[in-house]
Specification:
0% helix; mainly beta; six-stranded mixed sheet; four-stranded antiparallel sheet
Length: 114
């Protein structure tokens, strides 16, 4: 069955960086586009970024463009999200998902606070 396990979240100060990982199994990762979403209690689920199956095409929500970088290692079946210059408004649970399907699960919590 499909497995998506996010990790790498934590508590950081504004301006710092984090790299999230999503370990995957149960599907042909190298042939599948992937995305990151983020969720905050009381707010709508927000799409953050997507990457094509070969990593050649990446898209981002405007609020993270230039600060976040999505990438993937198709040899390891892992999806990444490098987050630089973090802001307090980036605080959320981050979820990886296949394609643009809305995610399930807990995700990994990122808290940006001074």
């Amino acid at each position: 069955h499909v497995q998506l396990v996010e990790s790498g979240g934590g508590l950081v100060h504004p301006g710092e960086s984090l790299t999230l990982s999503c370990a995957t199994a149960g599907f042909l990762f190298s042939s599948t586009s992937m995305s990151w979403y983020r969720s905050t209690p009381g707010k709508e689920l927000e799409w953050v970024s997507s990457i094509s199956s070969d990593g050649g095409t990446n898209t981002y929500v405007d609020s993270v463009q230039g600060r976040f970088t999505i990438s993937r290692d198709n040899s390891k079946n892992i999806l990444y999200l490098q987050m630089d210059s973090l802001k307090t408004e980036d605080s959320a649970a981050y979820h990886c998902t296949i394609g643009r399907v809305e995610p399930r699960g807990q995700g990994t919590q990122v808290t940006v606070s001074s």
